[in-house]
Design a protein that fits this description.
315 residues; alpha+beta; 2 domains; 3-stranded antiparallel sheet; elongated; disordered N terminus; Stage II sporulation protein D; SpoIID/LytB; SpoIID/LytB_N; Spore_II_D_firmicutes
Length: 315
């Protein structure tokens, strides 16, 4: 009896071992495929732990764009934010600021505090936009672009050359109509005393300088430089020193009360994608891809990639 059982065991072993051996390589390959997951980690200044890129862009869109925007505008912002992060951190190799010096990032706790009862709804909407564009970045040729964006235009975006003095092929001036219909404020007015004006700009002006004042505008309608007497400076310098909304401004001086009146159109530096412009186009039926190709001239969208050895991370 014992010999018969032993013989049966040997026969069964010979039958099953080849099957198990045949299956093993497939299981191993499945495990390897599971492990091939590129998870770029973003180190944000002031945040304790690095954040996966796809999680990071959710926090950026929450900080940079109203959650009630059209889903295609949100998708465009996600793609721009992901591209900006990929380029400016060298795909996670360098840290990035949490504020407007880079792009605003809000943690989940900050999002909950900011949105209150609308948190779940807003979070779901932004995460949906992020998932729909997962891994998408903007390139020009083989280069990840500098995906600059801003709030509101004056009807046109600004060319990089006018802003920085350096031409960038994909950051040209393009039309951005209809923003006044979707933006809460396109025109802003402010005033300051002559004393405050002089202090902020380091000047000693009186009424005579304002009478001679010339605002030299570029092709986008923004002030490229201001000139009066022996004084000349850029519109960008004036905007930054006076904390103006944009470089599309007008200046009027009230001689009797010694008050400087300033009117601005738009909000932000004006280069790249206008966020309210993206919303206006989305409401017209434009897709995120079309919005991106409009604001970033001659670019295309592709999936972000890493060298093979950097992709082998445990899931």
């Amino acid at each position: 009896m014992y010999k018969k059982l032993l013989l049966l065991f040997i026969i069964l072993s010979l039958f099953f071992i080849p099957i198990l051996a045949k299956q093993a390589p497939d299981l191993k390959l499945a495990d390897q495929r599971k492990e091939k997951k590129c998870d770029i980690m973003i180190s944000v200044t002031g945040v304790d732990e690095p954040i996966p890129l796809e999680e990071y862009v959710v926090g950026v869109v929450a900080g940079e764009m109203p959650a009630d925007f059209h889903e295609e505008a949100l998708k465009a912002q996600v793609i721009a934010a992901r591209t900006y992060a990929a380029r400016n951190t060298d795909k996670g190799a360098k840290p990035i600021a949490k504020d407007v010096s880079a792009q605003v990032y809000r943690t989940e706790a900050e999002r909950k505090e900011r949105w209150g009862k609308a948190f779940k709804q807003n979070e779901k909407k932004i995460r949906k936009a992020a998932e729909a564009t997962r891994g998408d970045i903007i390139v020009h040729g083989e280069e990840i672009i500098s995906a600059m964006f801003f709030s509101t235009s004056n009807g046109k975006t600004e060319a990089a050359q006018n802003f920085s003095g350096n031409p960038v092929e994909y950051l040209q001036s393009v039309d951005s109509p209809g923003e006044e219909k979707v933006a809460p404020t396109v025109e802003r007015k402010l005033q300051m005393t002559l004393t405050e004006w002089n202090r902020k700009l380091g000047l000693k002006w009186d009424a005579d300088e304002f009478r001679e004042l010339q605002l030299v505008r570029n092709q986008t309608g923004r002030v490229q430089k201001i000139i009066t007497g022996n004084y000349e400076t850029s519109g960008r310098q004036v905007r930054e020193k006076l904390n103006l909304a944009s470089t599309d401004f007008n200046i009027a001086y009230d001689v009797n009360n010694q008050i400087v009146h300033i009117t601005t159109l738009g909000y932000g530096h004006g280069v790249g994608m206008s966020q309210y412009g993206a919303e206006a186009y989305a409401q017209k039926g434009w897709t995120a891809d079309k919005i991106i190709s409009h604001y970033y001239t001659g670019t295309r969208i592709q999936k972000i990639n890493l060298p093979e050895d950097e992709c082998l991370k445990s899931s």
